[in-house]
Amino acid sequence: QLRDFGIDSIRDLGDSRLVNDQTLTGDMGFTQAQVEHITAVLKNDLIVQHAIISEEAAEEHATFKAFLDSKGLFGYEAQLRDFGIDSIRDLGDSRLVNDQTLTGDMGFTQAQVEHITAVLKNDLIVQHAIISEEAAEEHATFKAFLDSKGLFGYEAQLRDFGIDSIRDLEDSHLVNDQTLAGDMGFTQAQVAHITAVLKHTI
């Protein structure tokens, strides 16, 4: 039942937006007794969760730092992290890292922007190798999530706009009334359906 809803990692279990009384009963169909059991276990096991998640985060941090260092970008780490760019996957996301965000939001000079974009462009093959394995897993989770919410018919339009993960759905810069209608071509009724589902789920 958890996997059917796209809960397939300890990190997901620790995410209260995905796992809460409402989603456990309404979306996943657990009984009240089962919900109480699950929430009690998770509450008591919070320390273990945090320990596991923090270890993953530490590894990702080290990988990201090593990548920046190897590319001569070590001086830019703080500014990137302040904007929430803290993984190689984020660096490869052109919606997050582009000329506009690098200068306007992160405050890099034009010379620094050219340096960063040149490095990323030349290192695209390495990035894709790292991202593709993670993307395959995320694709399956995303599809299962949409199916469980009755949004399976919208997958193609969302993906065409680059919305291909639950994380993307949570990002109000990417998913809002304007982008859903104007950029993705959903009708007003479809927009209302999608936003209602996301509001109650995420």
List the keywords:
202 residues, mainly alpha, globular, 13 helices
What would you say this structure looks like, in words?
The protein is an all-alpha fold. It is built from 13 helices and no strands. The protein has helices at residues 10-13, 21-27, 32-44, 46-70, 77-82, 88-91, 99-105, 110-122, 124-148, 155-160, 166-170, 177-183, 188-201. The longest helix has 25 residues, at 46-70. It is globular. The relative contact order is 0.08. The mean pLDDT is 82.
In short:
This protein has 202 residues and is an all-alpha fold. Helix content is 67%, strand content 0%.
Helix-strand sequence: HHHHHHHHHHHHH
Q: Which segments are poorly predicted (pLDDT under 50) over 5 or more consecutive residues?
A: none
Strand count: 0
Give the strand content.
Answer: under 5%
Q: Please compute the radius of gyration using only Cα atoms.
A: 19 Å
Structural class: mainly alpha
Q: Averaged pLDDT, please?
A: 82
Roughly how many Å apart are the termini? 18 Å
Report the sheet with the most strands, covering strand number, pairing sense and barrel closure. none
